[in-house]
Design brief:
Blueprint lengths: L13 E9 L2 E7 L9 H8 L9 E6 L8 E6 L5 E2 L3 H11 L4 E4 L2 E7 L5 E4 L28 E4 L3 E5 L4 H11 L9 E9 L2 E8 L3 E2 L4 H13 L6 E6 L2 E7 L6 E5 L2 E9 L6
Parallel strand pairs: 2-3, 4-6, 10-11, 12-14
Antiparallel strand pairs: 1-2, 1-17, 3-4, 4-5, 6-7, 7-8, 8-16, 9-10, 11-12, 12-13, 14-15, 15-16
């Protein structure tokens, strides 16, 4: 059968996107303030797919804010369609993309951004939730030491995290099962840390709904918070992941967690939406 060209792609079938990454944790960012885009599971799965779409760890959708003090509303979606309350690396990428140190409106609250003298992007990730009900866990227990092999600690940085401090290999071996352990009714991000010193750790994170990633900003914040609570780490710590390092400071004065690191714009483009997309 002779080849025939496919249907012409018209402007109304295209969605403009930005591809960005923070330490190899990569994102497709869609600004919905000036274009129509429906974040359906079908469309999100296609965009996130690394073979049939653009490819990313998470899809990020921007809207006009509806809260006082915010400059942009940000929503984070995993490739499986689930929504994350917060994403540290994506927050830095959005701050870099928007410019002028915006305040991000997320489901975890308002997250102010800032620029360091070295030119790196920082985001105030707010106050971690430490109570079992707010993580959340399925039972009333002390979140400093959970009743799981390896005795992780748990907190929420807008999304639930459990951090193990007995080496990084557990993330590869058990991350998928631990994410869905009955102790985590909303599933959890599983961080596995190797402590080098009180101000330096190595970390690997199995992300809820995404799997192993090269870096996880909220996971780095949670690891430092949980390490401080266990008496293992100082409040200012360098967290090295497979994709690079972040600087985390759990500020004693007000309990806020500051996250500092790079954010890189990779490219922008137009993605063709099918008849059942967008």
């Amino acid at each position: 059968m002779p080849w025939r060209p496919g249907p012409t792609i018209t402007a109304r079938m295209m969605i403009r996107f930005h591809k960005m990454q923070g330490l190899g944790n990569d994102f497709v960012i869609i600004d919905r303030r000036h274009q129509r885009f429906d974040a359906t599971l079908h469309t999100m799965s296609k965009l996130c797919d690394r073979r049939f779409g653009v490819g990313c760890d998470q899809l990020v959708v921007l809207d006009a804010p509806d809260r006082d003090g915010a400059d942009i509303r940000v929503r984070f979606y995993n490739p499986d369609g689930s929504e994350a309350g917060a994403c540290g690396n994506a927050s830095r990428c959005v701050a870099a993309l928007i410019g002028n140190v915006p305040v991000l409106q997320t489901s975890a609250g308002l997250l102010p951004s800032f620029i360091t003298p070295e030119g790196e992007i920082g985001v105030d990730m707010g106050v971690p939730a430490l109570d079992w009900q707010r993580v959340p866990l399925s039972q009333a227990i002390d979140t400093v030491e959970l009743p799981l092999p390896g005795s992780p600690a748990a907190c929420s940085m807008g999304n639930p995290h459990a951090t193990f401090f007995d080496g990084m290999d557990r993330a590869d071996r058990e991350g998928a099962a631990l994410e869905r352990d009955a102790l985590f009714p909303e599933r959890a991000n599983i961080g596995c840390a190797e402590i080098v010193s009180r101000d330096f750790i190595r970390l690997r994170v199995w992300e809820r709904g995404a799997g192993l990633t090269l870096a996880c900003g909220s996971g780095a914040c949670a690891a430092v918070v949980n390490g401080v609570r266990r008496g293992l780490l100082d409040r200012e710590c360098r967290v090295e992941m497979d994709g690079g390092a972040l600087r985390i400071h759990w500020r004693k004065a007000d309990g806020h967690v500051l996250m500092i690191g790079p954010a890189t714009h990779v490219f922008e483009g137009l993605y063709p939406l099918g008849t059942h997309d967008g």
